[in-house]
Amino acid sequence: MPFRRDEPAGATLTGAYTLRNVGDDVFAHLFAAMLRRHGYERLYVQHATPQLQRALHAAPAEGTRDAVDRSRVVIYGGGGALGTGGLSSIVEEHHKFEYLWKLAWYCRWRRKPLYLLGVGAGPWTTRASKRRVRHILQGAAGVIVRDEASSAALRELLPRVNGRLKVLADPAYAIDYAKLRSKPQRFGLPQPCLGVNLCPVSGYRSGLPPTEAAQEIIDAVQELARQGTIRSVIWFSTTDGSELEWACRGVQALPEISRLVWYDGDPWAWISHLGECRTMLSMKLHSALFAAGMGCGIIGIGFHPKVVRFYRQFSAQTFCDSLDALAPGDIAPFIRQTLPGAAGLASTPTWQKLRGLAHELL
Q1: What is the rounded distance in angstroms from the CA atom of residue 171 to the CA atom of residue 77?
Q2: Region 187-213: what's the mean pLDDT?
């Protein structure tokens, strides 16, 4: 059914929203609120779980093409939409961009502006991936990336994108962390409490395998508990599947002092639980960013280049090591060295600058 002029202004919001992941769902909530502030009364949330569509009060549509036809603007919001970082097989990397490529060209054919907002880009490891990303850029009305490294990657890939490309910041900086801190979710655990988010992704093609890193982290946390350096642990899982399984392994390793926080569809409750932790040890980007916003010190074992880039923005790269640079047995010494002075970022001028840029985006 085509868009009718007498309908309320409609917009399509889409992204990596089928994964039931706390970070991606946060982006969906932030961009939905932005669109409604700009007068888009009917919101078609596509490529999303039914739970997220209900939470955002999405209008019904018969698939993405129908949603685009009913909309005046299309937003692809947040996440590593234009990058991979060598995390999957070549076949999987090639297909990663298929949905967004089809969306870009359908929007161009229907003359509906498509904006990619708050996304990351690069690196790419195949010519096919680079070709797909070029096609996506050619079909987009505008692209706002979350960091300078993503901007540089896109400018090198397609120099003429320059006029439609802007660098701001990750949307997650704009969260009202003060409000979340004022109503924290608490277990009432003894301090110091350590938060841990493991990321045992498969298919990583270089460096220490993520599953080996996850096991070394569990072993190191057990040693910290034996020494009395920490008195409690919260094991966080941002999504289902192997990440939740490994969080449960952490609980089983230290059952007397551990609690588990998994993602049940409420991103704000998940983030609020971080407020009980003095320090967060994370293999992922957004659990570290959320923790920093909640006032935790953070240290990282980066499974992806974007994690190291995050710390580098604050000149805090000494508090994050990459799987590419780690050998078996390196993780425990790294944690012992960095835990006492874990990076506190939320009070820095850089954080305030990035928060301002995120508000400009939203």
Answers
A1: 9
A2: 89
